[in-house]
Design goal:
With 337 residues, the protein is an alpha/beta fold. It is 39% helix and 9% strand. A four-stranded parallel beta sheet has the order 4-3-5-6, with helices on both faces. The protein has a two-stranded antiparallel sheet with strand order 1-2. The protein starts with 14 loop residues before the first helix and ends in an 8-residue tail after the last helix.
């Protein structure tokens, strides 16, 4: 296939162009209890039940290549935006961000460009599709650092970029997203699970701490980003990302404003208003939703801002969650205050 012969210096190619349509699981409803997500406790972490076979397969069989980059995050923490920014940055040699109308992100949802590993590795077919990608490969996961395979955690060939956000904003965004499949899901119910650490990818404090500690121990291996900081300085964080993946902007690129071009290309409103990101689930368009679940492409683009939690979380709820998170993070040097 022509795309697989692409030079490694040009960066990743859209996963959809290699693999075709690939199901990406979300939060399917439970007919017996529309309020409960199908999560399982696996090795001390709560994972979506449909993802567990893929997680086990990753742990057993994933072999990294030099140049591999894994984007890690809890759900609803800026994952879609990070996928777009990382893809546009790493692939800028093959897909200049100034050619916005010709860029893969103009015709594909970011999740079609950067696949979730959990949804691919449950069978050999997904693994073979990943093997078909040219290097450097760009992929994503919601897995805790503690359950990543040693092949990812210990290999000098594979880098990790992690993003997190204020837990209060995360739980609000997660609730809005989950209600696409579970309309009866109350915010109070979601909030209770979140505070108890039993929501998808929970406990959230363990998720964040795992990558935070890894970034402190091996800063050359794990880049720790915060969504709020990226909103305040997107260009600076794109530069940081490019440097981290060994593709720093050249003086010529800096003079031309390539980092700003990438930020414009991946602007939240720009992406949200593209036709591909308004497609309904199950669409028959050339670029359908990146999942076979009830989640349409527009479900990945809600507000793209911080502080929306204040519209949903009562003062008492905010104090409770802040206290839980503060206690769990105490002594780590990390805070969401």
């Amino acid at each position: 296939m022509a795309a697989t012969t692409q030079s490694a210096t040009t960066g990743p190619v859209p996963f959809r162009d290699i693999a075709g349509a690939v199901p990406l699981s979300g939060l399917p409803s439970d007919d017996d209890d529309p309020k409960r997500m199908p999560v399982l406790c696996y090795q001390g972490t709560w994972v979506l039940a449909p993802h567990l076979p893929g997680i086990v397969s990753i742990q057993r069989s994933f072999v990294p290549r030099r140049g591999d980059v894994v984007l890690a995050s809890p759900p609803k923490c800026g994952t879609t935006w990070l996928k777009a920014l990382a893809f546009a940055t790493m692939a800028r040699g093959a897909y200049p961000p100034t050619r916005a109308n010709e860029h893969p992100l103009a015709r594909l949802n970011p999740h079609d460009c950067v696949p979730f590993m959990e949804t691919l590795f449950f069978d050999g077919e997904g693994l073979s599709k990943m093997d078909a990608l040219p290097s450097p490969r760009l992929m994503a996961t919601h897995m805790h650092h503690s359950i990543l395979p040693a092949s990812i955690k210990d290999s000098a060939d594979c880098k990790i970029i992690y993003i997190c956000r204020d837990p209060k904003d995360m739980v609000v965004s997660l609730w809005h997203f989950a209600r696409r499949a579970q309309p009866e899901l109350s915010f109070a119910y979601m909030f209770e699970d979140f505070c108890n650490g039993t929501s998808a990818a929970g406990p959230i404090w363990d998720h964040v701490l795992g990558y935070w500690n890894a970034s402190k121990e091996k800063p050359e291996k794990v880049l720790f980003l915060r969504y709020e900081e990226m909103l305040r300085d997107p260009v600076g964080n794109v530069r940081k990302l490019a440097q981290f993946v060994r593709q720093p902007f050249s003086p010529t690129e800096e003079e031309a404003g390539v980092a700003m071009d990438i930020v414009r290309l991946c602007n939240f409103d720009t992406l949200r208003n593209l036709g591909v990101n308004k497609a309904a689930a199950g669409s028959s368009s050339s670029s359908p939703s990146p999942s076979s679940s009830p989640f349409a492409n527009d479900s990945y683009f809600r507000k793209g801002e911080d502080g929306d939690w204040a519209n949903h979380v009562t003062p008492d709820m905010a104090r409770r969650l802040d206290a839980v998170v503060e206690e769990k993070l105490r002594g780590s040097g990390l805070s969401f205050a």
